[in-house]
């Protein structure tokens, strides 16, 4: 794989999760453009730099030996990639502190470097939190590949931080150079809330939660077919989002034991709040993680999953396939994975390669609900 070469360093970087013969690199031209811009401006070890949404740690790893860097991300995999890439390039795993996007920032910061995220609600929430965290004469710069850089990103920066000047395009990347100005600190519109009719629960959704304004249609198709009569089964909600699948299942299975995991810190925060709202102090394990990678083998009876079909802007079934493999490892013999998926994704044949029995539980014109038994 090519090295990231900038005035700060020449780095060998990997993506997370790792896969053999990785076709994609862990940085892009927007990372290079942003780092070259900062090098022209100059930083010192006393310069406090905040990096937001650094996909695999390219920015923070480059700057770590040259400035005081803090990274904030909503991705467990992104945080893991940063640590691994620091070690890979001669630094310590914790050389750059990571603040989950669900937690407050502690400024003031002299530079704020933003990789514009796919979800603009996350950008909006981050900009709102930045408003009282900037040092005098702070510089705020956002970067992205032009095809992933909507006009509204600059409009949000202007609304919450100050005037924005767009750079010239370089290698199909662009910078948004923002000049902070005094503004009245605005309240956040997040989290959002909506109520389901069946089950009758309210759901809290922090800014980066998938379908935060209403239940996504895949989950809506899945809910009526969640397994009942589970007794004291050990159940995991893999890629739990706001926790709705596990909560709905738990309401029908009062003696079952639940683990909820998602790679988004804001999803985990939402799921924790929603579980307490619906189920009070009922015991549960909810955590951010790389799917079921940390789950003991053969320690679960049931896995529920509405798998993603993209990682950031990259569309594909790599993450779903990996989740199916993790579920198989974590399930006891005779245990079952229940999933919902778009018909055209062909999950039935993929699951049949891993599980001894796959059956269609239900179908709608768009989705299938499948049960795969180990």
UniProtKB/TrEMBL annotation:
User: Where is this protein localized, as stated in its record?
Assistant: Cytoplasm
- Swiss-Prot/TrEMBL catalytic activity: guanosine(1835) in 23S rRNA + S-adenosyl-L-methionine = N(2)-methylguanosine(1835) in 23S rRNA + S-adenosyl-L-homocysteine + H(+)
Name the gene behind this protein.
rlmG
Q: Give residue ranges for domain RlmG N-terminal.
A: 1-181
Which species? Pseudomonas graminis
Principal localisation: cytoplasm
**Pfam families listed in its UniProt record:** MTS, RLMG_N
Q: What protein name is recorded for this chain?
A: Ribosomal RNA large subunit methyltransferase G
| Residue intervals of the Methyltransferase small domain | 201-371
Mind naming one GO cellular-component term on file for this protein?
Answer: cytoplasm
* Function in brief: Specifically methylates the guanine in position 1835 (m2G1835) of 23S rRNA.
Provide a Gene Ontology MF annotation, just one. nucleic acid binding
Q: Which InterPro entries has this protein been placed in?
A: DNA_methylase_N6_adenine_CS (IPR002052), RLMG (IPR017237), RlmG_N (IPR058679), RsmC/RlmG (IPR046977), SAM-dependent_MTases_sf (IPR029063), Small_mtfrase_dom (IPR007848)
Sorted UniProt keywords: Cytoplasm, Methyltransferase, rRNA processing, S-adenosyl-L-methionine, Transferase
Family statement: Belongs to the methyltransferase superfamily. RlmG family.
**EC number from the UniProt entry:** 2.1.1.174
């Amino acid at each position: 794989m090519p090295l990231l070469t900038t005035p700060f360093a020449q780095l060998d970087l990997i993506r997370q999760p790792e896969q053999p013969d990785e076709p994609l690199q862990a940085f892009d031209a927007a990372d290079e453009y942003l780092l070259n811009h900062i090098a022209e401006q100059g930083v010192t070890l006393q310069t406090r730099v905040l990096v937001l949404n650094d996909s695999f740690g390219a920015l923070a790893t480059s700057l770590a030996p040259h400035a005081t860097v803090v990274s904030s991300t909503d991705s467990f995999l992104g945080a893991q990639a940063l640590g691994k890439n620091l070690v890979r390039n001669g630094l310590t795993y914790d050389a750059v502190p990571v603040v989950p996007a669900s937690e407050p920032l502690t400024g003031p910061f002299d530079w704020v470097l933003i990789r514009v995220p796919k979800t603009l609600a996350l950008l909006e929430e981050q900009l709102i939190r930045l408003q009282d965290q900037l040092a005098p004469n702070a510089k705020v710069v956002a970067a992205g590949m032009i095809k992933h850089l909507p006009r509204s990103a600059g409009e949000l920066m202007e609304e919450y931080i100050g005037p924005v000047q767009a750079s010239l395009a370089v290698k199909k990347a662009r910078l948004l150079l923002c000049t902070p100005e005094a503004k009245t600190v605005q309240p956040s519109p997040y989290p959002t809330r909506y109520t389901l009719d069946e089950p009758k629960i309210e759901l809290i959704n922090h800014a980066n939660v998938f379908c935060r304004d209403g239940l996504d249609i895949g989950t809506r198709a899945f809910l009526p077919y969640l397994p009942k009569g589970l007794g004291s089964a050990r159940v995991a909600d893999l890629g739990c989002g706001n926790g709705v699948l596990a909560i709905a299942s738990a309401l029908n299975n009062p003696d079952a034991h639940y683990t909820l995991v998602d790679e988004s810190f804001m999803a985990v925060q939402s799921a924790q709040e929603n579980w307490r709202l619906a189920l009070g102090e009922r015991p549960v394990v909810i955590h951010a993680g790389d799917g079921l990678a940390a789950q003991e083998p053969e320690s679960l009876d049931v896995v529920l999953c509405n798998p993603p079909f993209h990682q950031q802007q990259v569309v594909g079934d790599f993450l779903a396939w990996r989740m199916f493999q993790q579920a198989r490892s974590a399930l006891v013999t005779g245990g079952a994975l229940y999933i919902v998926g778009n018909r055209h994704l062909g999950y039935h044949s993929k699951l049949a390669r891993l599980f001894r029995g796959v059956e269609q539980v239900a179908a709608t014109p768009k989705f299938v609900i499948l049960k795969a038994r180990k």
